[in-house]
Amino acid sequence: MLWEDAKVQMMIEKESWPYCFALSEDFQKTEQRGCISGRLLVRDRYIDDGDLYASGAYVGLALPGEAGSWQRECKGYQFWCRADVDGSFYIRNIITGNYNLYAWVPGFIGDHKLDATLTIVSGDDIYLGDLVYQPPRDGPTMWEIGVPDRSAAEFYVPDPNPKYVNRLYINHPDRFRQYGLWERYAELYPDSDLVYTIGQSDYSTDWFYAQVNRKVDENTYQPTTWQIKFNLDSVSPGSTYKFRVALASSARAELQVFFNDKDRGVPHFATGMIGRDNAIARHGIHGLYWLFNINVNSDWLVQGMNTIYLNVHKSPVQEPEPVSGADV
């Protein structure tokens, strides 16, 4: 009864916000704020000839900046909503000021930003009409690991060490909140690292949710190198392919990428040291989103079986990134 009463009260408080009893001149009442609405569509001609509904998209206003800058913005107000199944959105009770409109769509990589700066004044109810997001695209997707949803939840999350079990999260959707799951990687792969074969492996069982260093003993950690194996029927000489890597989080890690030659002195691509999220150590499944678009020279590839090596270098104090998805 207490729980049901709390849920009813929550809805009352939600509908009552922004509160009318606040006396501060800095707290704007409902009539002093503004609203915006519109519909977000996704344009990807390699998937559909028509525009797609951005169903369930996250649409919000934040201080003006670059696409995706809202992730790191902490000095201004932000106002967000989830779009309906047809991509329609309506953001209410926006404090007056200048904003950019940002969005991201589950199932599609990248960030959307409306180029225009929106100025919200008291009483505004702005209708933006149809907005179109075009995800980064250079050609048809040859293969993909995971789902581009900024979360590592779809990957393999192991059972916890029995001495760390939190019974609240047994058979729970948030099973990744169990403590110490990152240490299970060394138990599952004590001598060699993960190998994922396109067309044979299943990311829900064969792709560990976080690429971490292997713990050898209390004070010793080893870098890990994962492999993605895939077959190419042919390679177009002189052409450039695209390898996109989306990271759900990173904690003082550097991801190095090698194509068919892991022993070359310099990686074909390196992120540099990125992230201070600590998502894994904090029992989370995502933090700041990172997207890297890597140009792959045809000289790096061969006809037949190819191997991409993902090597993680990091400080052993922090835990590195869960990977949200990778596609070529």
UniProtKB/TrEMBL annotation:
Keywords: Signal. GO terms for molecular function: carbohydrate binding. Coiled coil: none annotated. Gene3D superfamilies: Galactose-binding domain-like. Residues 55-126, 141-314 form the Rhamnogalacturonan lyase domain. Pfam families: CBM-like (PF14683), fn3_3 (PF14686). The keyword Coiled coil does not apply. The keyword Signal applies. InterPro entries: Carb-bd-like_fold, Galactose-bd-like_sf, Polysacch_Lyase_4, RG-lyase_II, RG-lyase_III. PANTHER family: RHAMNOGALACTURONAN ENDOLYASE (PTHR32018:SF1), RHAMNOGALACTURONATE LYASE FAMILY PROTEIN (PTHR32018). This is Rhamnogalacturonan endolyase.
